[in-house]
Amino acid sequence: MISQNDIDTILSGRSHVLASDGSKIGSAGQVYLDDQTGDPSWVTVKTGLFGTSESFAPLQGANVTGHDVTIGYTKEQVKDAPRVESDGELSPEEEDTLYRHYGLSGHTGTTGTGNSGNTGRDFLDTDTTRTTTGTTAGYEAGYQAGDERIDRSKNGNTVGHDTSGPTTDEAMTRSEEQLRVGTERREVGKARLRKYVVTENVTKTVPVSREEVRLEREPITDANRGNALDGPAISEEEHEVVLHAERPVVDKEAVPVERVRLDKETVTAQETVTSDVRKEKIELLDNDTTNTTDGTNTTGRR
Questions:
Q1: DSSP designation for 300
Q2: Strand, coil or helix: what is 97?
Q3: Would you say 158 and 151 are in contact if contact means Cβ atoms under 8 Å apart?
Q4: Whose CA is closest to 151, among 161, 159, 143, 140?
């Protein structure tokens, strides 16, 4: 259920209107108030390229989540709604047409002030964050629509506009923008592990041995005389010896050497944010000096 407490959220400039299935319809534009209850009744939805189109959507049964407004209707119903100019005035005929389009009941026609051609509903705009009523009664010369502030206290004592109007009180409110800096968490990248095969050259040195022929001579002694005299005295003979040598042999085996995994750690850094903020100043004007709320004086202003 949308109430007056949700108006500032809807008019924050960051609010989007979502359909009943959660799909985005468009950004919120203006909020129209019921002059009898003061509760939000309609919201305009900016659609189309660059938000050039604006459709009316009912706030009955809607709810606010964060900055978004979820209504109980489809995107097609909103986009097919009758074209009504969002100029701050909603005539009884236009409102009846919208009620019939959305299948709403209980509308009593002209409400509020009863002025001809206006419903008496108020609207709030996200661009000006001010309210303009559908009635034109009570305006004095020089007082234009959009100069007044909405009275949320319901006691009728806080409404005011410029000094040409009749309802301003004895005090003026000074406001200023305050810079609120926070953080938001969003995805900035991804890291993943990938295993692939590379080939590299490995050199190792191993000792190898081989057999070589060596000629040995021994003199004839009593110990080998028998072998020396065995056989013919003069003859031709051949003897051979088999030689052996070692050769390097390469064999490969796959063995696990380590395990690698991804882990995350949070590091904190300092970042400086700079933005422009506006503030109102109130000054006292007389014939001699000008006093401002920040304590400075200027002379000679007339």
A1: S
A2: helix
A3: yes
A4: 159
| Whole-number Å distance between alpha carbons of 149 and 136 | 16
pLDDT digits (tens, 9 = 90+) for 225-242: 888 888 888 889 898 999
CB atoms within 10 A of CB 171: 8
Q: Is 270 helix (H, G, I), strand (E, B) or coil?
A: coil
Distance CA 258, CA 243 (A): 46
In the structure, what pLDDT confidence band is assigned to residue 169 with cuts at 50, 70 and 90? low
Q: Other C-beta atoms within 10 Å of 17: how many?
A: 27
Contact 105, 58 (CB under 8 A): no
pLDDT digits (tens, 9 = 90+) for 100-150: 998 887 554 333 222 233 333 445 554 443 333 333 223 333 333 344 444
Give SS3 for 137: coil
Residue 58 near residue 97, CB atoms below 8 Å: no
16-18 and 68-70 as β-strands: parallel, antiparallel, unpaired?
A: parallel
If DSSP codes are grouped into helix, strand and coil, which group holds residue 168? coil
41-57 pLDDT, tens per residue? 889 998 766 556 788 99
Map out the domains of the chain with their CATH numbers.
4-133 (2.30.30.240)
